[in-house]
## 1
Amino acid sequence: MRKRWNKTEIDFLKRSYGSLTAISIAKELGRTKKSIECKAAKIDLKGIRETNRDLVNGNYFNEIDCVKKAYLLGLLLADGNVSQSSGGHYIRLVLKDRILVEFARNELAPHRPIYPHLHGSVGFQVGNKELFDSLAHYGMVPNKSQYVFWPNDIPERFEAPFLLGYFDGDGCLHYSGIYPIWTLYGTQQFLTVAAQKIKYHINVIVTGPKPKSDKKWLWRMWATSDRARAIDSWLHHQCNLGLNRKRIRK
């Protein structure tokens, strides 16, 4: 017996069919891909492959030649994901910080909608093989979490905004009394190089990297007090990007 569509499902389909693949929507609604496509056809919705296809900045990451590109690459390496199927090559970012999702969307595909996700998060998705391939060059591949490395060809002058983007994705800032504690999470390889870059640029030695949990690939490194303040200042010295909630109070 066919499962009847309810209003909540139809509203979600209408909001999402121009930005998510039928497969992604099917997973969200617990339906089949065929069910999604048939319903969309009945109510005359245009799918992701038929909407604003030529308005994706597919060559965006072909060269890291500005602060914004470096920052966004770091953010995507930390919190983005990519997938490949018979339907195409997709890049997706889902976060609770809407400002970061809007920034990524505006840079890569300004006409793509932002859609609501679970637990107050929002996201956007774009399908583009050139963008997919260029991100793979920097290590952004399907199921990348265990294998993220520091890309070799990030220009030295953009290493700070690149690390800032990564920190906004996979870092945290908290306080012990009045003392800030700056922490970064990732693979041992990525954090080892990041620690070397910090020491090279501002002569600050972080603690770690050290294993974080029972996940063998997850490590962390941190800095406190004046070391944390020095890192915070260096990361932001080139630009006004970055989350205010992750900046050290003056």
Note: The chain has three domains: 7-50, 53-144, 156-246.
## 2
Amino acid sequence: MKKVYVVTDGMYSDFHVVAMFSTQKKADAFTKLLNYDEAYEWELDPPVAEKAAVGLDCWRVVMLRDGTVKKAKKQTGSDRHHRAWHRIDLKDYWNPDRPPLLIVLCFARDKEHAIKIAGDIRPRSIVDGEWDESEPEPPKPIGITKDIKRLPGGGISITVELEGGAKE
């Protein structure tokens, strides 16, 4: 299976491919030089037709950490994808009470087969720490702001009481 390394930019209707590379090293150098986020590994000539020929279709499975299946649906039309992938959606800013979800796109014979594939990915994703919801502790303050003054000429003077009572 040959791979290419693709640098993209934009979102939604502005999403586009910026460049493609034959090696990860070349792609990483490009992203670093021009300040792009990262290069994505894509399969060259993905075997979608071969998968369809042996009776596999594209399925999307949504699963909770405990293995409860929230949705398993065959993908049709523009929802179909050329490669399998998975991700963990830890937070939903529109629905903050929603639990974290495993979302799997896979090629499977039927709904049960797709759920089995997602079920095989779930424990690996837990062991790999993908479900880790912990956030780093916020930095501890080094002092308390006591006074803020605007100086002539537009500057600002801030008086801070540091730990131990010193002022700066």
Note: The CA atoms of residues 5 and 26 lie 9 Å apart.
## 3
Amino acid sequence: MAASTQWVPDANWCMKLARRLERPISLVRVSLPQIGSDRPDGPPHSAAEQTLVMVGVELRCTDLIEIGKDGATTFNIYCLDTDKDGARILAKRIKLALATHGLYGHIVVKTFPEDGYTLSDLDQVASQQLLHEKHGKPTVETNPVSAQQA
């Protein structure tokens, strides 16, 4: 009897679908401080893993989480059929979930087609903004909204 395999969509598939349907897809990149960096031989701090669980609660079944190469300190969330405003709402919810557990980080929102046409484009602009923001204070917005506008 052959083993059944279940196909799971990846970020490339999501981008192809967004282009084909001419619908937006948003990348929400969450970067946490290097947790447990004082213990390079030990396992990562459980707070990073708990963060992924907290974020999972905030997501729809159609959203996709991709863990960054650096482990659980950076991850991407691809939100199909979600414009920039919708992704900013998710980013704010994630920020609140992190804050309730005493965690903070940088959250960047980029959207197809406004910020790029390919995953590489979105990744590049998100990386550039994240690098810029890591030299300042944590933020959620690509264009910060004042308290009066919120």
Note: Residues 69 and 80 are 22 Å apart (CA to CA).
## 4
Amino acid sequence: MLAVLLIPVWATAQNAANSSFQIKGILLDSLTKEGEPYATIKIVKKEAPEHALKMLVTDMKGHFQEKVPGNKGNFIMTISSVGRNSIVKNFSVKSGEKSVDFGTMYITDASNELGQVEIVAHYSLNIFSEIPFYRLSLYIRYLHMFSFGLNTHEISRF
């Protein structure tokens, strides 16, 4: 009797374990052919693009490999990295398919650049302009004394 009760639980657990597939690939810089580290990868169902099924990042060499929940359907993979053009790949997974290999993909630099930047100071950056001359003189003597390694009894020489 106990075996009959456990069969549906076992079947459900097996079905849940089988309801995922694996994605893998390599992301390289298009110019240097070096791996693109820490690029963000987002997997969504094509029918529900606002809900991410899986988020991951590439490793230091640009490799990625991860299980994604779901067993079949149409998906969208978006790869983004700071200062780079995003890569968007549509792909389909058939029932029973366990792995999707994207192979080697190349990411390019974004062509949008910032315009000219002008830096303006609204107050004096000279810290000595606020110090009266006699204090400045003592401060400089103090620094001078320690920069040459003089003892405190030699301060009278200044």
Note: Strands lie at 20-29, 40-45, 48-57, 63-69, 73-80, 87-93, 99-107.
